Fold this sequence. Notes:
- The protein is α/β, with parallel strands linked by helices and 261 residues long.
- It contains eleven helices and ten strands.
- The strands form two sheets. An eight-stranded parallel barrel has the order 1-2-3-4-7-8-9-10, surrounded by six helices.
- Helix 8 (160-170) links the parallel strand 7 and strand 8 (177-181).
- The longest helix has 20 residues, at 240-259.
- The two termini are 18 Å apart.
Amino acid sequence: VDRTKLTYEKREKLANNPIAKKLFNIMATKKSNLCLSVDLTSTSKILDLLTRVGEHICLVKTHVDIIEDFSESFVTQLKQLADRFGFLILEDRKFADIGNTVSLQYSKGLYKIGDWADCVTVHSLPGEGVLKAISASVNGVSKGVFLLAEMSSEGNLITPDYIEQTVKVAAKYPELMTGFVCQNKKTFSDPGLIQLTPGVQLQSSGDGLGQVYNTPEKIILENGADIAVVGRGIVAAKNPEAQVVIYRDALWKAYAERVGA
Ligand code: 5FU
């Protein structure tokens, strides 16, 4: 069966990872398959933006290492917003080292990512030790991984064989796997996993630094995305509150058309 023809409600039942289940449930309930990438360097700007747009998103994606005034209080407030608006938190750390180092990077240091992020991104490049290093639960709370199978950037070095091996290794960690960061429908078939696709913007087709943008319709209807990641299309807009609604509506409409709802 074609996973992209199934509703998020059906796929929630097919997911093994608790974070994937929660995400499918949030998407269906909030009618939003939009992930906002809050690539801002100040905590007040991030919290302010999320206060204004949080009701429209299913997931927020952070790059915690670009924040200049990171604090524990920021984490507390971020989690409060996530609870209040009902979205999950993805830290886009792209772990890519040996298992032991990743285990330390995940749980220690300034950020203690494993304490607050529901899920993280991981490169398959180092081999499966990187997946063994990320716990499926921290202090009894479920966690998840989005494994990078493809990237949106021009000239990236990922090959068809790399993609195939990435999908194979993921199948060994059903409890942990929330989904894949990828660009194509054919990359994987398991309907219990989520396709997270970055490189989405209405205003432009690239950023001059290798990023490649597609439209919401293309990534949902043709490329098989379940959740679209939008950063600057919303974050750098004059009116983010207006843009977030435009993206959310376009993405949801494309999903509804895809599943024939
Ligand atoms: F894995 C990937 C990828 O293949 N492309 C990406 O663009 C991740 N990203 C992230 O999505 C990137 O690090 C940014 O945080 C975000 C896209 O932001 P934009 O402003 O919409 O280009």
